[in-house]
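Data availability excerpt. The first of two example chains:
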Amino acid sequence: MVNKKIGRPTNNPKSESIHIRLDNESVEILDKYSKQENITKTEGIRRGIQKLKNDLK
């Protein structure tokens, strides 16, 4: 029997998992942004992390 991978093929696999706790204000901001942009909360978090790239030295 051949093992097949399940799921969509991707050029950018997400192999890392991070679990966080957020305060109420952060959750509200993330919820509003996700609804406004019609994206998942996970994608909203990824976009926020990408914006941090500008602050790197």
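And the second chain:
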Amino acid sequence: MFRKLWLGLLFPLLALAAPGGHSHNDYEQDRPFHLAARSGMLSIEADLYPSEGRLLVAHSRSDLDPDRTLKELYLEPLQRWQGKPIELLVDIKAEPDLVLNLLEQELTANPPPKQTVVILSGSRPKRAPRLPYLSLEGTVAELRTQTLPPNCRYISGPWWPESFWKGEGPMPSGTRSRLEDLVKQAHEKGLVLRLWGTPDEPDAWAEFYRAGVDRINTDRPRELAEFLKERESR
């Protein structure tokens, strides 16, 4: 009951807010968490692998470093964070059920600030999350086939099935129409939309902002923050 009430109050407001930034593969930044958070990104992404009872952050198994844990890179800084609420998206790369068990243990030991949402992306565990602020991320394909998981309020999908446009020159009118239609479908269900593999430069950001894409994907959080600040001041 509490979970449904909490989700019902929070998530519709998110889909109505102005578009914000998503720091893609944030752990690859020079200062993980801190650069994105202080730049005003609404969402931060970390890829997870389980290793000897801990959660390590890396893009692939070959990059695993025992010193780069979810706890040290994200959960502890998040506990100290006093700025606006941040969404932590964890992309589960392997053993999703084990990762969910470890994640819930670590979050219970290191609880995030109120209004934090932790979004489970990537490989999906078999069971539902138990903590009220954990949310499964659905996919654009699931939106279109009406097969989204229960209590899903976030969705994502790759850009290339939507269009081959790479940010060079004006966005084709057909692409813009498809993008606007996708945003409309997501918002009609109160969903927060993110697209990945998108062109990462100002002309493309402007198109996604104009269309109402809720989380603009970027590897350049500082530059995107300046762009969003300028847009919001108009």
